[in-house]
């Protein structure tokens, strides 16, 4: 890689009480790539991406976006900077509708007197856009875009969260286990979507426990272990067995770009 | 569906058959029992229950008590009687939608009515200016609650239990536990009694205060349902953590809710002067709990994020209809209280049942 990374983390540390979730962790994401992050349960993957997306504040370390130091105080800051995240918990409001969830925090107002002075929302426009994004994802099995998210299946909810991120991300999209609850077909859609987004030149961070998926779409694989980056491997030069062995500590990484 | 190659590393290609798969995917057209259908309908329209209860109870009391109940005079009287608690319930709804509770609404209202009265009667401040001070004071009192809930991270119940006492004590201190008489108001600041004015049409007596209550509900309904702020209020009440991750400034939303609730209480304070005719520091001592009663009977979930603010209006009206109807039917006051108690319990039970729809 001769390019400069678009998003980097150096020496990230995060403690939860006595638990060290991130232990001087480094991170690099290059423009246009799909970077997979793999690791055992509790290795600190979610903590890492939460630090990158402003959902948690790190105790130590530096984060840079496009070479500029950033310090996101909230997920909104990261989002305004162009980083869109699908959290493992999805971050959907159960009682709100699909449309409301997709546009939460960036609602579209009517382009008239009502919108300008009485802040009236343009429900119709948001519905149209939401429908468009969801059908791109093949999620139009949802009959009613105004139905509450809590009435959707787990997979459908995940689809809504992924569609939201894909629709609004401008610089980086981070997905924490976006296919965990999805069926074979819906997973395929998400993988296709990842490729589509990549084709547009936008880099993606994909956290997943699904090795076939990781090896299929990733350009590089960040192996996370015990709160830090153990190594970064090239999926073309390593097997899934290698990756699992590194991740679980069964084998020390060799010939990999050590971290 | 573009199927790009098989998985690179071992394993069978279990996705091959996807290309031939049914595009329509799962449709959820499984049949519902009538009860399930009802549950879904209510889930989508949480205000339906209070509306039905209101209509049915008006009908039943109309049959029992006849003309005396079912007259334009009595029906408008009921609206007039619930107008102040109704406005407090509107303020209460805002807070309860965020999964909070505000035990101080009536205390804020009474304190602000005392402040407005004291300024204009004893200190000679023009009534409109005195009212502006009261509005600012109500907003500040609400913001204090909001600040304690968001920044000091205290539970809303405890916070407002504390400020209830604080505002009540301030109110007794400022007023010297003395009422301001109706005649003094008429002489020096009749503007404070503006909302006591009445429009008479036939037998109907519609007070300005009743109209104000309806306007307050319409305005808040608009803000909650037609603006981004309203969506955020629901999202915060639903799941605060998710709302934060989704990019809502949850603390700011909460502060605005408590501040607005305080302002609504101060507006209710103005209306209460017109309704009561005088300013009494001891008035509306049960208003805090009565406002919660109206909200709960109106189908707004105490767990936050669910229900329509219009439900609180219907809730307040239901309470008014029961009180009026039972009284006119010659039932002892204690049985009115008894009936309201059951209404609360049934309303919460129905809310619990509706919320199970997703499980
Ligand atoms: N809010 C929290 N409070 C306390 N400890 C936490 C919190 N969040 C995470 N941890 C701890 O930090 C460590 C890393 O958790 P994290 O969620 O980042 O793991 P993960 O790699 O995403 O795991 P998984 O694959 O199961 O999603 C764990 O030991 C976890 O218990
Ligand atoms: Mg995780």
UniProtKB/TrEMBL annotation, chain A:
Record CDD domains: ABC_Carb_Monos_I (cd03216)
Q: Name one Pfam family in it.
A: ABC_tran
Molecular function terms from GO: ATP binding
Write down the InterPro entries for this protein, in alphabetical order: AAA+_ATPase (IPR003593), ABC_carbohydrate_import_ATPase (IPR050107), ABC_transporter-like_ATP-bd (IPR003439), P-loop_NTPase (IPR027417)
ABC transporter domain location: 7-251
Keywords annotated in UniProt: ATP-binding, Nucleotide-binding
Top-rank taxon: Bacteria
**Under which name does UniProt file this protein?**
Fructose transport system ATP-binding protein
Look up and give the organism this protein is from. Rhodovulum iodosum
TrEMBL record, chain B:
What is a single Pfam family found in this protein's UniProt entry?
Answer: BPD_transp_2
Q: What is this protein called?
A: Fructose transport system permease protein
Report the locations given in the UniProt record: Cell membrane
Q: What is the topology of this protein in the membrane according to its UniProt annotation? A: Multi-pass membrane protein
Q: PANTHER family, per this entry?
A: ABC TRANSPORTER PERMEASE PROTEIN YPHD-RELATED-RELATED (PTHR32196)
Q: What is its main location?
A: membrane
Keywords noted in UniProt: Cell membrane, Membrane, Transmembrane, Transmembrane helix
Transmembrane segment boundaries: 47-65, 96-117, 129-148, 154-174, 194-224, 255-273, 294-321, 333-354
Could you name the domain of life of the organism this protein comes from? Bacteria
Q: Does the keyword Ubl conjugation apply?
A: no
Indicate whether Phosphoprotein appears among the record's keywords: no
Lineage, highest ranks first: Bacteria, Pseudomonadati, Pseudomonadota, Alphaproteobacteria, Rhodobacterales
InterPro entries in alphabetical order = ABC_transp_permease
């Amino acid at each position: 890689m001769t390019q400069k990374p678009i998003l980097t983390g150096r020496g990230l540390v995060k403690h939860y009480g006595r638990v060290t979730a991130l232990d001087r962790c480094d991170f690099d994401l290059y423009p246009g790539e799909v970077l997979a992050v793999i690791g055992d349960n509790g290795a600190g993957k979610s903590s890492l991406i939460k630090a990158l997306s402003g959902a948690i504040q790190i105790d130590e370390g530096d984060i840079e976006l496009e070479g500029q130091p950033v310090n996101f105080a909230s997920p909104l800051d990261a989002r305004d900077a162009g980083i869109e995240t699908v959290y493992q918990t999805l971050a959907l409001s159960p009682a709100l509708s699909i449309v409301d969830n997709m546009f939460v925090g960036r609602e579209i107002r009517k382009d008239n007197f009502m919108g300008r002075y009485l802040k009236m929302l343009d429900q119709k426009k948001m519905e149209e856009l939401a429908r468009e994004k969801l059908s791109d994802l093949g999620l139009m099995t949802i009959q009613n875009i105004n139905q509450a998210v809590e009435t959707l299946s787990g997979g459908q909810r995940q689809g809504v969260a992924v569609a939201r991120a894909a629709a609004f991300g401008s610089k980086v999209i981070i997905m924490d286990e976006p296919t965990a609850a999805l069926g074979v077909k819906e997973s395929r859609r998400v993988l296709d979507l990842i490729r589509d987004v990549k084709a547009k030149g936008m880099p993606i961070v994909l956290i997943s426990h699904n090795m076939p998926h990781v090896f299929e779409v990733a350009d590089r694989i960040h192996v996370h272990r015990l709160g830090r980056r153990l190594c970064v491997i090239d999926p073309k030069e390593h097997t899934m067995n290698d990756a699992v062995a590194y991740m679980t500590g069964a084998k020390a990484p060799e010939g990999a770009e050590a971290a | 569906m573009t199927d790009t190659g098989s998985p690179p590393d071992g394993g069978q290609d279990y996705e091959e058959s996807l290309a031939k798969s049914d595009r329509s995917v799962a449709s959820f057209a499984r049949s519902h029992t009538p009860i399930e259908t009802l549950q879904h309908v209510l889930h989508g329209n949480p205000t339906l229950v209070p509306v039905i209860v209101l209509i049915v109870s008006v009908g039943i009391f109309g049959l029992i008590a006849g003309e005396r109940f079912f007259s334009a005079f009595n029906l408008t009287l009921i609206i007039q009687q619930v107008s102040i608690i109704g406005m407090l319930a509107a303020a209460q709804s805002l807070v309860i939608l965020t999964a909070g509770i505000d035990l101080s609404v009536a205390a804020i209202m009474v304190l602000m009515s005392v402040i407005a009265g004291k300024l204009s009667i004893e200190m000679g401040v023009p009534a409109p200016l005195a009212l502006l001070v009261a509005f600012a004071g109500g907003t500040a009192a609400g913001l204090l609650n909001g600040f304690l809930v968001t920044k000091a991270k205290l539970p809303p119940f405890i916070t407002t239990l504390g400020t209830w006492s604080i505002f009540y004590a301030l109110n007794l201190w400022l007023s010297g536990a003395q009422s301001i008489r109706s005649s003094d108001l008429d002489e020096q600041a009749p503007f404070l009694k503006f909302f006591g004015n009445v429009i008479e049409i036939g037998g109907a007596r519609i007070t300005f205060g009743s109209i104000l209550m309806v306007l307050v509900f319409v305005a808040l309904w608009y803000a909650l349902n037609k603006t981004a702020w309203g969506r955020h209020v629901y999202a915060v009440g639903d799941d605060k953590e998710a709302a934060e991750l989704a990019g809502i400034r949850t603390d700011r939303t909460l502060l605005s809710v408590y501040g607005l609730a305080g302002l609504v209480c101060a507006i209710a304070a103005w209306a209460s002067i017109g309704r009561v005719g005088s300013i009494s520091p001891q008035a509306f001592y049960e208003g805090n709990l009565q406002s919660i009663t109206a909200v709960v009977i109106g189908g707004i979930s105490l767990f936050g994020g669910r229900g329509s603010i219009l439900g609180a209006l219907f809730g307040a009206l239901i309470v008014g209809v029961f009180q009026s109807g039972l009284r006119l039917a010659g039932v002892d006051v204690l049985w009115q209280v008894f009936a309201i108690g059951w209404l609360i319990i049934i309303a919460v039970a129905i809310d619990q049942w509706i919320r199970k729809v997703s499980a």
